[in-house]
Amino acid sequence: MTSPPRFKDALEVFARHHVDLIVVGGVAAVIGGAPLATFDLDVVHARNSANLDRLRNALDELDARYRDPAGRLLRPDASGLAGTGHHLLQTRCGPVDVLGAIGRGRTYEDLLSDSAAIDLDGLTIRVLGLAALIQTKEEAGRDKDRAVLELLRQALRGSARLERP
Amino acid sequence: MEPRDPAASGDFRELDGNDSLIRWMMSLSPAERLQVLQGFVDSIGEFVRDQSTAIQRRP
User: Fold this and answer.
1) pLDDT digits (tens, 9 = 90+) for A5-31
2) Residue B36: which residues within 8 A CB-CB, separation 6 or more?
3) Close Cβ partners of A56 (under 8 Å, ≥ 6 residues apart)
4) How far is CA A67 from CA A44, A70, A90, A133, B38, in A?
5) What per-residue confidence (pLDDT) applies to B57?
């Protein structure tokens, strides 16, 4: 049986282990103000060795394993997490996708300047902004990305209007 | 008389239906937006559990 998503609980574990990551995907879109639904937490992590150690500790605490259709118990390892691939994991806080890069190969370092530290009632997390999120989804060009693009663009326009003095 | 620019006036009623929802989301704090998502996900989970139980009880 898979665990239902508990987004903030998962983020708290990453924060407790001081993992350098950027929240992307649907959760970033919602935090940015887009009214959409998602069931997984997508993060792009820094791939230096110290951060990979912290990430592995956090994933251990989350009891992370790959979402394997064959039902095998496969755990993420350091060598895999060091690459730019996508690790689609099930955790005790629901599905978590740990991504080495998104869009046209954008890494944590590439995305950092387009992200902001956001306070979630005492929990500070780094979240990708809507404009950059749109750009990475345009680059990815998958059907599921294209399906939400117009809503993200509307949300970006809405946020710009509200920020206007 | 010049036509009003809904964007400039901030009048979302003249924009499409998603905009009122977007405007409401934008009025929330980031933490509250995440709570909205969590609430939606929880309600879907509850619905699925109820449906499973109902199916199991069918004769």
Assistant:
1) 999 999 999 999 999 999 999 999 999
2) A30, B25, B28
3) A76, A77, A78, A81
4) 18, 9, 6, 24, 21
5) 75
| Overall size of chain B counted in residues | 59
Residue A36: closest C-alpha in chain B: B37
Q: Spell out which residues of chain B touch residue A158, defining contact as CB-CB under 8 Å.
A: 12, 19, 22-23, 26
Q: How far apart are CA A20 and CA A7, in angstroms?
A: 17
In the predicted structure, residue B8 carries a pLDDT above the cut 70: no
CA-based nearest distance B3→chain A, Å: 18
Judge whether B10 is closer than 8 Å to chain A, CB to CB. yes
- Supply the pTM of this predicted model: 0.89
Whose CA is closest to A82, among A42, A53, A115?
A53
pLDDT band for position A161 (cuts 50, 70, 90): confident
Rg (CA), chain B: 20
Give first-to-last CA distance, chain A, whole Å. 50
- Report ipTM (2 d.p.): 0.93
